[in-house]
Design brief:
With about 140 residues, the chain is mainly alpha-helical. The protein is built from 4 helices and no strands. About 5% of the residues are buried.
């Protein structure tokens, strides 16, 4: 297979996703009305019903599940790091691989958080909306 068509690396995809997220966060901070129109009224409105249905069916919160998964990934990475150091592998390669996996995992979690909920923090405040009655 030619080098032009090789599969992208997970690290490269994570970096590209992080750069897109950073650009989206800058845009969201400057233009909250776009967040309301694009994210909340389109994407979040489509994601909320199935995710709400799923959250109602499981006896624990999705937050707890993500915390446990992160802990499992961290322990797995620590075990791989210790095993790699004990077996006499190249230490710099072992550390590099461990850091790469940790970066990819954290990047995916952060991107997932913002897509599933985090951009709601950039929506216009309710008290700033024209329909808010300040005389109550």
């Amino acid at each position: 297979m030619s080098p032009v068509f090789r599969r992208p690396s997970p690290l490269g995809l994570a970096l590209a996703g992080d750069m897109l997220l950073a650009a989206a966060l800058v845009c969201a901070a400057r233009h909250p009305a776009l967040v309301e129109g694009i994210y909340h009224d389109a994407l979040f409105a489509a994601l909320a019903p199935p995710l709400g249905w799923l959250a109602d069916r499981i006896p624990f919160s999705v937050h707890e599940l993500l915390a446990v998964l992160l802990l499992v990934f961290a322990l797995r990475g620590l075990v791989r790091l210790i095993r790699g150091l004990r077996t006499g592998e190249n230490r710099s390669r072992t550390f590099r691989d461990c850091l790469r996996r940790a970066f990819i995992t954290v990047s995916l979690l952060v991107i997932g958080f913002y897509v599933l909920w985090g951009f709601n923090y950039f929506r216009p405040r309710l008290v700033d909306s024209p329909s808010f009655d300040r005389n109550l």
